[in-house]
Amino acid sequence: MALRERDAAEHHRLKAVRNGESGKALARCECADLRCNATLDLTRSERASLRARPGRFSVAPGHALVDIDRVVEQNERYTVVLIPGMPPYGAPRVPLSSG
């Protein structure tokens, strides 16, 4: 490993230690309010866990729509909602018919 690569690897290791073992990942609130600019402080493992479960979205506390969203997890930093009928991330989009 070249010296430069080792320096970069050490920098990333120290940064991970400084941020905690799993690190932090800022995420945007995924609520229905298009004007919302709230950010959520998730660990990298929390973010990965959310993305591994299709159809789940992370929203700021109090941002879930009680008539639409189904709260499946909640803590003081974020709420996880499931939106019935919402296609999961990465699902192919169905074009609207041009009938």
Mean pLDDT metric: 77
Strands in their spatial order, largest beta sheet = 3-5-4
Low-confidence stretches at least 5 residues in length (pLDDT < 50)? Answer: none
Instruction: Report strand %.
Output: 15-25%
Q: Which key terms come to mind for this protein?
A:
2 helices, alpha+beta, globular, two-stranded antiparallel sheet
Could you characterize what this model shows?
With 99 residues, the chain is an alpha+beta fold. The chain has a domain of 62 residues. 24% of the residues lie in helices and 23% in strands. The strands form two sheets. It has a three-stranded antiparallel sheet with strand order 3-5-4, with no helix packed on it. A two-stranded antiparallel ribbon has the order 1-2. The model has no long low-confidence stretch (mean pLDDT 77).
Entry summary:
The protein is of the alpha+beta class. The protein has helices spanning 3-18, 44-51; strands at 24-28, 39-43, 56-59, 70-74, 79-82. The chain has a domain at 21-82.
SSE arrangement:
Blueprint: H1 3-18, E1 24-28, E2 39-43, H2 44-51, E3 56-59, E4 70-74, E5 79-82
Antiparallel strand pairs: 1-2, 3-5, 4-5
